[in-house]
Structures are given as C-alpha cells and as structure tokens.
Write a structure and sequence with these properties.
Keywords: Membrane, Transmembrane, Transmembrane helix. This protein is an all-alpha fold. It has 20 helices and no strands.
C-alpha cells in the first residue's frame, strides 16, 4: 500500500484482508511459485504461473501497455488455463489450501463452487474489454476458449452487450419522444446517424438468431424507423432523400414479413404517390398484433411471439395492452426456461385478495349464531381462490377492486337489514358468502381465460 494512501484505500485494504473468500480466489490469479507444503508436483505450479502470466500479458496488450499483438497471447492464455484446470492436482491444491487456512467460512464445497464459477471468472476481464472495445467481434471470439459451456459464453456475450442494449433502448425512447413532440425531421436525422452503429454492434456480438433480446430491440428499431418515415413524409418540406433513407433503414433491420410489408406500403405511399397512409404503429394494428402473437405461441414460436409482444409494448396506446403483453413475455420466458409459468406475485394484489377474504369471513362471523364451521368450509376455499386470482398473471388489475366493491354492497345491505332487528335467515348469509368468496373468484378467472 502506498505511503500516501487515503482513508478509503486503507479501509478497502482491511476489508479485503477480512474477506477470506476473496483472498482465496485472489490466490488463483496470482503466481504460486515453488511448492512448499502442499505436496503438488513442481510442474503444476509452473503451469499455473504460466497461465497467469499469459493472461496478464494478453490484458496488458489489449490495454496498450505493451506493443505485443494480443491474439497469440489470448490463445496461449486459454491453452495454459485449459492444461491447468484439467489437472486433478490443481483442484487438490485448492482443497489443501482450504484446510491450511483453517477458516470456518471455507469448506469442501468451496472448491466445488470455484470449479463451477472459474470459467466465468476467467473471461470477466475479457467481457469488460469487449463491452468498451470498438472491435467486440474480435474479442468475443476468445470467450469460448476458456472452458465455459455454451450458457457461460452466451451470458458473457450478453453481459458485454449490456451497455449497447441500454444505449439503444434509450435512443429509441428519445426518438419516440421527438415524434410525440412533432420533431420528425430531427428524429429522422438522429435515427440515421445513431441507430446503425449499436444495431450492427449487437448483431456482431449477440446475433439476433441466437439472442432474443437482440431480435426484439432490432425489430423495435425497424418499427420506430417506419413510424419516423411516415411522420416525416407527412410533414411539410420533408426532403425526398431523407424519407427514402429512413424507410430503407427500416427494411434493412426488420425480419418480420408483416412489418416489411407495412414499411414497403408506407414507402410507396410516401415516395410514389407523394403522400402516406395514416401512421402505422404496428404490422397492421394492435388487434392484428395480438392475433399474430397468439398464433406464434400456439405453434411454439416463442421468440417470434416475444418480439411481437415487445412491439405491442412499444406502440400500444392502451396501458392494458402494454401490461398484458409484459405479463405474457414473463410467462413465455418461464416456459422457455422449463416447467410451467411461475405465479405472478404482486403485494398489492395479494393484500386486496386477503381483504376480500377477511370481509367474507367477517360477514359470516357477525351474522351467524354458530359461524365456526361455515367460516372453515367457505373461508378456506375462498382464500385459495382469492390468492389464485391475485397471483394469476392473466387477470386484469380491475378484477379484485371490483370484487371488493361487490363485497361492500352486499355487506352493507345485509348489515343494514340486521341493524333494523329483522332476522336474516342463516342460509341467505351462507349463500352470499359462497357467491362472494368462491363463485366470484371462479367466475372472474373463467372470464379472463376466455378473453
């Protein structure tokens, strides 16, 4: 530590010393030297130290700290690590170090955790370089060399692409805002100048045929370009060449036949007849988009369905459409990950469901002479149904509030009658509770399923 270290640097150093897990991992990426009491064959430490040195040399070459060409250094680093990690003596050394350190925070499972995490850790510096590099495709080719499986490599590519995803998504929001403000020409000029670079970068790093997020954001960009072209051609004094270039870029990036047909139709209307059709925010309209997405889901084309649903989120005017599309995307991803969709959990919805059940139970408890058995027989199924309703992603936000309004009306009527001294037959109270707690939830869920 330097003599002029700041308090923050000193504190960070002590934190690092106190974190035994981090110290143990740091040993992996530092030279080991000659074996002492670990019982390792000398060549193991030598091979490990060669891997560390080659890895460091490759990183230094990439950051221009040396004049060496990085390509052979990356190949050498990958080969050296492959030799090291394939040796059981290497893992035996780690097990020995766990015992030597004698820290209760380290045990036999520590080595297993490192074994599974090490391929990702080895490429972490490469991922950071790829995210900032002007040549991401060159660096990305080194990612599979370090022993990770296809999922590890795909995750590394996605992580390296994350800044580009965010930049592109923010740009699309800014372009949409410009359109909303009536600044079609500014939107067109920015789209032509700023969209191709991140879109092409994503296609090189995370190709749309393999990465759903790339396919989705690229299609959204094509739809945005179509809308910009329509708005631009509709404005006074729009340059012919600018309109043509915007539509050409939209056709370049779309892979959806319906979107392509829409772009070509709008382009012909704008450049051929000198006018355009009304702006089209989707391949046909939102209703047609829903039909398209449903068809894709039925045929098991989940990636295509996700792309269409993302388009709905981007262009739909009704918040209900956008929310329903978001919920369906979550369910599709869960299906793709394997197994049935998990429940959609929302604290406010669960609270409303519990409030609904509490209301029904209170109704039974206050109006019946012997409420215990009815509360159990009706309240338990009612609780199950209400929670199922609250955690069903396909149920609209207004369903539970509507049930609570029904609760309030029914309860008010019964309690007003009871307050007058008029006896209320027990069967009326029981039937009312059944309708509210059991039938109400079943009916609502059935309606939503048909929709």
């Amino acid at each position: 530590m330097p003599a002029d270290a700041t308090q923050e640097e000193i504190r960070a150093a002590f934190d690092a010393l106190g974190n035994i897990e981090h110290r143990f991992v740091d040993e992996l990426f530092w030279t080991w030297g000659t074996p002492e009491d670990c019982g390792c064959p000398p060549q193991l430490h030598h091979k490990h130290d060669l891997a560390v040195a080659a890895h460091a040399a490759a990183l230094e070459a990439e950051t221009e700290q040396t004049e060496d060409h990085p390509a052979p250094l990356w190949d050498e680093a990958a080969r050296s690590w492959a030799v090291t990690l394939s040796s059981e003596a290497f893992w035996g050394h780690l097990a020995h170090r766990v015992k030597s350190l004698g820290d209760p925070r380290l045990d036999e499972s520590t080595v297993d955790v490192i074994r599974s995490a090490l391929p990702g850790a080895l490429v972490a510096p490469l991922v950071a370089l790829t995210a900032e590099s002007s040549e991401p495709h060159r660096l990305a080719r080194y990612l599979p060399l370090f022993g990770g499986d296809k999922h590890t490599v795909a995750d590394a590519r996605s992580e390296a692409a994350e800044p580009t995803y965010l930049r592109l998504e923010n740009l699309l929001k800014e372009l949409r805002k410009l359109l909303d403000e009536g600044k079609a020409r500014t939107a067109a000029e920015r789209a032509l100048a700023e969209l191709p670079v991140p879109l092409d970068r994503l296609e090189n790093l995370v190709p749309s045929k393999d990465f759903r997020r790339t396919a989705s954001v690229t299609e959204l960009a094509a739809v945005a370009l179509n809308n910009i072209g329509v708005a631009l051609a509709d404005s006074a004094g729009a340059p012919h060449r600018l309109v043509k270039d915007v539509f050409a870029l939209a056709k370049r990036y779309t892979t959806d036949p319906d979107t392509l047909a829409t772009v070509e139709r709008n382009q012909q209307g704008a450049l051929g007849a000198g006018r355009v059709n009304a702006p089209v925010n989707a391949p046909v309209d939102v209703g047609q988009l829903w039909n398209t997405a449903t068809g894709y889901i039925k045929r098991g084309r989940y990636s295509d369905a996700t792309r269409v649903l993302n388009t709905i989120i981007e262009i739909a005017l009704r918040s209900e459409d956008r929310e329903q599309a978001s919920r369906m995307i979550v369910q599709i991803r869960q299906l793709q990950d394997g197994g049935p969709p998990r429940r959609y959990v929302s604290a406010p919805r669960v609270f409303l469901a519990l409030l609904h059940v509490a209301f029904g139970v209170t109704l039974l408890a206050t109006l019946l002479t012997s409420p215990l058995l009815p509360v159990f027989l009706i309240g338990v199924p009612g609780l199950v149904g209400a929670l199922g309703l609250a955690t069903n992603a396909s149920v609209g936000r207004g369903r539970l509030p509507a049930l609570l309004v029904t609760d309030a009306v029914a309860g008010l009527v019964l309690w007003l009658v009871d307050s007058t001294g008029t006896p209320i037959p027990a069967w009326i109270t029981v039937v009312t509770a059944v309708l509210l707690l059991v039938v109400g939830t079943v009916r609502v869920r059935t309606e939503r399923t048909r929709a």
